[in-house]
Amino acid sequence: MQYDNNTTRIRRLLLVRLAQLAFENKLVENIDRIPIEVRPKGSPHDRCCVHKERAVIKYRLMASLGFKVEDEADELMTLGQYAQLALSREKVTQSDLTVIDEACSACVRTNYFVTNACRGCFARPCAVNCPKKCISFVEGQARIDSEKCVNCGKCMKVCPYHAVVYVPIPCEEECPVGAISKGEDGVEIIDEAKCILCGKCMAACPFGAIMSLSQIVDIIKNLLSPRKTVALIAPALAGQFDASLEQVVGALKQLGFDHVVEVALGADIVARRESIELAERLGEGDPFMATSCCPAYIYAVQKHVPELRPFVSKTCTPMHCAAEIAAQQYPDALRVFISPCAAKIKEAVDDPLVDYTLTFEELGSLLVAKGIDVADAEPQPADLPAHASGRGFPVSGGVAEAIKDMTDDESVLHDEIKPELIDGISKQSLKTMKNYALHGGDFNVLEVMCCEGGCVAGPCVIGNPKTATKRVQQLRSESKIKIPDKICPGERDLNG
Prior knowledge:
By secondary structure, the protein is of the alpha/beta class.
């Protein structure tokens, strides 16, 4: 999840400025003024100088225009030139995270540090218990030799004054798959062969040095064009604003979207298909079926837990199913998926039925740029609405519950569904997933959510996850459960 702090505030401020210029058709001419306007000469700055601040802002804007900072070939290339390229491109092909080297503080790899709370006690349990004898005493205080330290943490455990603290590298600490590490210059590098696009490093970095590539300019360009545009709204969007779902739909229409389709409608259909698939699998002797609408979990299986692959549901995702329905209903319209996370951006880029992706954070910036308050928007129903089961997908346990909803009442399976939840992907939960793949367990449906709490706590959300969960659950309870007539024929591609 994203927390309210200075890095999120500056990122959102820049997105709003970018959007305002794009809506006014002044992006190319005026974007290079944004760093100067945000950090004028003589203004307070957190880094060494105002010029460093402006350089970081430039690269933030570069990522917001959809370009990787690592791909910069000419430092003299202006933001206006990047904006021109962004406005002229017909298709987005990049979906990776980018590291802003100017913003990365190159955190020192000293995991254990002795604070001035050290009393230099006679017992000296830290030095006595250190297996590498890397602790010495200087002027009555303990010192750790970082060259010898193996980060076992014994000194911290035995210190009676809690004078030894653990100092992590936040992005590396949060990454569950070891996909981010230091380069030779100390700046973090993301290994795309390992990365599952969970966005945990992006949310964890206290310097805001990691960003997803935005498609906000491409979307605004199309909203201003005569071509019809369809918003495919992820179920978690219902909990992001202090307003009804109908008001969110009204705000999207006010923003310029011609049609709004609930991806939860696709989730209804997917849940029905998965209930049938589960019955088939159990009938063929499979111990369980693994499921989720989360692409980060699929990337984790593909890259890190291949043992689980045979058990993963082959049914396509709700996003794909909803995009397929929208393509049939509005064949000439552009389809924009509105997403709570970075992993969905890649899924959308790889899906020919989805043209662009807008994160919740970016949507919020567009609304601010246009002066639209969702709470004041005129309520309108979605053009293609969903039902209770699909609307519960973004909360942990919601997918498994939807599958149970979609089993026929007379089916033996209806009362035999036993779910097991992986609520958040971590180093430990990856081991658990592997163990389940090899040995099974007392369950027959394994639901895996990358973000703890579900999609309502994704790295690109703007609402408080606990509040969003309550709103989603309330909407689900107020909606009807309906078994769809249509069964989604699409299958998930597990080959990467």
